[in-house]
């Protein structure tokens, strides 16, 4: 069989050669393109793949293997859906369905599970080739970027929460673009609705300002931009409902590389609550300062008033012991009683002031309740006999004899109640009854009752008599006198022990005032509570000591009347004693060194050096460590006795100086 040979002309052959050369060139270019594509695919840091409509990868590049950790064979032999995180399968199906509708995938994100179990975030771009029904896709690993975004979101959330808690909003303003940005909390502080685009935000911000504050803000901003320094300001804002807030604002300049101010940043804090607290604190401090000033004034006035009264009481007491005719005795008794009444009124006002200022404290010590009750009753025996009233003390057998309490304040309450009973009872009897209401372990609840057959109290007046400066009615004040403080003070003192005064009264028949207090029981008397170092000294060698016929007593007192009274009283008791006079604490210390007295009567309030400091100086001298130093004071402040003891004084005597009291003190400390 012969093969037919086609004859070609030269021109035709030449054309054929050109066509073959073009075909070869195209093949070369195609091969070059394929080589370049393969290189791009294999060397790309992004994940490149081709997948079919059965969800299998046909081609994957090295990045797939490197990033996911699977071998190429594992990736090609299993449906790619197995590598997708289960929570992302549904949205991946939807995206593939969109591809089939000729919608390319752009920036679709899902998570793949790496071979080690970790998740990787992939951002996809993909297209469906209709001609071969294959998906061509490329993915970028955005895991680090997403983690960074999550951290930023978390930080932003924390910042917003912190701002919310601290009531602080932040802002920034770009001077070039005039763009103003606010944090969420700042919108809440100014109560402005947050919008995606608000060109008039700064105007709304300024609408909350008072005019003077706008002017100050403009000055601050200008100064910050011009001089590149921060600003601070505190001002009020007025909201839509006319509600006012206080805010504290700060702003700082942001500089570029050329040191030009390009932006401002700052914070605004809602300080309304702080302002209210500060105002409350200031008001409280002002009230406390006023209360302290009032207390100090009353204390000083008490001292100033009591000082001349001391002289009146002391000298009238001395005069009453001299020979007087009937009229003189009556007049002098009236003066003495009036002075003592005035002293009681001053003490009541001072007590009321201390209680009102919260300065009253109880001092606990061992009390013989039997002895204390007898002492209180004895104070009223003379008046009861004079008025022919039966004065009765009854103590139930189950009442413990020794308790722990404030004997001075307990006695004060009982004296107040008995004094009122005596004042308003003309005939019949007055009873002081002590009974034990409850007992458990070492605690005893003791009830104190004062019962009288006096005028009684009308029902409508029974509550108000416990109020300060109030009595049952005006006629009572005129007829019986008094300040109306006694019951109020007693009730307030009882409140310190979580107790209160109670009343049962029938008008025209009589009254019963009673209260109950919890006391700690003491089985037996435990001796003197005074510090051992301050007890009377029995060993003569410890202090300078003079013969009995020549006691040396130093009196430190700046008031001439009180000095004369003290000298007169002592001379009546110890006619042969030597008296040394000084008018201030500094001289008292010098005279103690020079004269070596047996006892010192030390006033508290003196010029140059007070009695406290003088006593401290004396106690530093070893030879006078145990020298009896007796405090003399016109004050009756709570804790003053304890303060005297703390400074080293041996005992305490309150003015006015009464003959019997001074005699007891002198005998107590000089008899050894």
Folded structure, characterized:
By secondary structure, the protein is of the alpha+beta class. The chain is 44% helix and 23% strand. The protein contains 20 helices and 22 strands. The strands form four sheets. Strands 11, 12, 13, 14, 15, 16 and 17 form a seven-stranded mixed beta sheet that branches. It has a five-stranded antiparallel beta sheet with strand order 2-1-5-4-3, with helices on both faces. A five-stranded antiparallel beta sheet has the order 7-6-10-9-8, sandwiched between helices. β6 and β7 form a beta hairpin. The radius of gyration is 50 Å and the shape is elongated. About 5% of the residues have low confidence.
Produce the secondary structure layout.
Elements: H1 10-43, E1 47-51, E2 57-60, H2 62-68, H3 72-77, H4 89-100, E3 105-113, E4 119-129, E5 134-141, H5 143-166, E6 168-174, E7 180-182, H6 184-190, H7 201-207, H8 211-227, E8 231-238, E9 244-255, E10 261-270, H9 272-319, H10 326-356, E11 365-368, H11 369-379, H12 381-387, E12 390-395, E13 402-405, H13 407-424, E14 429-440, E15 443-452, H14 474-480, H15 486-495, E16 502-506, E17 510-521, E18 552-556, H16 560-573, E19 578-582, H17 585-595, E20 599-603, H18 611-619, E21 629-633, H19 640-646, E22 651-654, H20 659-670
Parallel strand pairs: 12-14, 18-19, 18-20, 20-21, 21-22
Antiparallel strand pairs: 1-2, 1-5, 3-4, 4-5, 6-7, 6-10, 8-9, 9-10, 11-13, 13-17, 14-15, 15-17, 16-17
